[in-house]
Sequence to fold (875 residues):
Amino acid sequence: MPSAGSVNAANPAVDTSAQTGRYDPAALEQRWQENWKADGVDATDESTDKPGFFALSMFPYPSGSLHMGHVRNYVITDVIARVQRMRGHAVLHPMGWDAFGLPAENAAIERNVDPGEWTDRNIDQMRAQLDRLGLSIDWSREQATCHSDYYRWTQWLFLELLEGGLAYRKNATVNWDPVDQTVLANEQVDGDGRSWRSGALVEQRQLNQWFLRITDYAEPLLNDLDALKGWPERVRTMQANWIGRSEGAEISFTVKGAEDQTITVFTTRPDTLAGASYVVLAPENELVDSLTSAEQKQTVEGFRKDVARLSTIERTSDDRPKRGVPIGSDVINPLTGAVLPVWIADYVLAEYGTGAVMGVPAHDQRDIAFARSNGLPIQQVIDAEGAADAITAGQAWTDAGTLINSGAFDGTASTEAKGAITNHGAEQGWASSKVTYRLRDWLISRQRYWGCPIPVIHCDDCGAVPVPREELPVELPRGIDLSGKGGSPLSQQSDWVNVACPCCGKPAKRETDTMDTFMCSSWYFLRFADPHNTNKPFSKEAVNRWLPVKQYVGGIEHAILHLLYARFFTKALKDRGLIDINEPFERLLTQGMVQGVTYRNATTGKYIAPADVADPEDPRDPNSGDKLEVLFEKMSKSKYNGVDPAAVIDRYGADTARMFILFKAPPEKDLEWDDADVEGQFRFLQRLWRLVEAGAARIDSLEPMQRPAELSDADSGVRRALHLAIEAVSEDLSDEIQLNTAISELMKLSNAISSTGMDALSDSVLQEALSGLIRLLAPFAPHLAEEFWSRLGGSGSVHRQSWPVLDPTALVQDSVEVVIQVKGKVRGKLQVPASAGKEELERLALASDVAEKWLEGAAPRRVIVVPGKLVNLVP
Fold:
């Protein structure tokens, strides 16, 4: 046995005198974190003889403060990474920072600091906070998207897409603040259509901007969702809906009086063509100018100015009334010959479809509302039971039926009429089958400073010229004055903007737009595979070694944009010959939110800080005395319901914080924070501390011992409990990750060892049980597991040990416990041979003390036997 104060031979730097006595997580965790760093325990294993496993959390924006949502995300990924290391994989577990974007620029403006300096300070602060959690991150691969050694390669990849015809410029609508003279993101426009900073009514303007042709990949992005078996069905459905594949027809309406001019609409309901009573153009549609009559010109221009002040969200909102005006032109319905008026309306967008739609009020709810408010005809062309009554009541009939009022197509089923009318129109030259997508090309231009500069130079003679790759990166000028006003800050930096054209040498100007931050996050996982490559963003060999990411963890809020853009980037780069993989992420886990107790005044809608609630049993507004609602809502500063991770770690330690956040709820479900449950996890770790401390009195080495040939009942019982835990925890950490039930199994195993009593166990079984328990614990509470491993004389780090292996023979039982019921009520238990059949179980039950007591000598009318489970005696 080791003597008090001895030095552990397996870990000579660790003094075991610091390991005895009271559980002190603060000192213990700091000591082991320093030890891991010195020994390089978390470094990526570059061995090529091991299978690779890439575990990745969605990298954070460096706000400077870690919140509980971060903790949950990164701890989940850390458990997965640690388990895979112990299972013999070479694990890549990196971390980086999604560091460009508007929040940093706004913070810099408010604080009058350089956004780069502000961001770097935040990164340092958050890295230190993450380190306290004991995450097994390989920090040598750290990346920050705002550093030029990273965004050099973002620019390089943009040039690849430009060369491949996937990047282009065109006019597009932006939110314009007429007071600050700047472009606003949608998030900077409030619900009333006003600028968040100046309060001015926001206008819609056309600017020449950069796009990526993600629509070229709409079909593979949609079809390949079926191959993502490791993704939640919910996320795949969300992406499919966002891509929005629609099969229909393009139909051309000839402009009355101008037979050479047509308006083409796309519709998924060509079967309702005869019911069209008007055609609507987007106010921005280029046809509006040529088709507007002199009499309507003033009205149309006034309406267009009104619409220009609305955001896209406002224009397409379902609960906003649809407005429009006629432009003074008509078109001819190609199927019926009817003359239809042409309108412009706020709900039609130029960038969607053809920028024109046909209005069929009887069979589209939006159209019937518009028609009723503007006195337009409503013509029913599909009949079914209840259809006419619904339309009369203002409810469009959108279900199937039989065509009426449709000429030669009367009596045709509407489902068949879609193809029949399209084919008829194709023969006549006014219709064609068409597949369209809701997905639109990706607008990547941002008229902001704090972003990746677009590596293009504009020359009057040569046009848009790519910056030569050997001149990358195009670095952001630093130390400039940021006011948040007056257009792009880069456009005001004449020394930076004015350069010579790379082609002809004449005076030219740099592109002053910066890239959408999603550009930076759409390929960062590839850089982690080859982070120190100075010749290219990554080598194909490194990507093939580590990609696709085996387990990706992040919030459901990224289900569409980030994940869709990352998939597009991967497919585009494969087509450019840069990588071989077709999808970036093999498995996806979307963790639920962390919610805190929230007090809200239902009358005023204001949130009240818990510190201001005098009596939680009778919570009232401290100002008005109103009774407060008590809710669980996502933690946020505005709701005063956040819990500071540092405060929890200071009080209980990182291992307790990890155990609680993993145990409280399944990883994909929302988690309700409860201080009492945190305390419960702390007590469990204290029990483990006492258990191992007691075991250390007998065990001073974890080198496997020879087990006795014959095991006692106590030994057999504990070995069975151990291997049941190994089986259950291993299953919980494979495929469908269930961390909460895995921790439950650790509790069961701990209880089994404690309740049996160490004095009843042989040294070999005690050693086996403690060794297995500590290794199962290691991914969840890494500091404490390392302490236990060292305390019991384990060799090296517990995190470099093999995952416990199931011994099926340990699960075999000589006897089992069955429940004895009388009239369905449990009256006792009986130990019986595991092989006992129904007849033997009935005999043993009838001969038991339980039967003698409750049957009082009478024979039961009926005996129900469930082998291995119970015997029910029915008197």
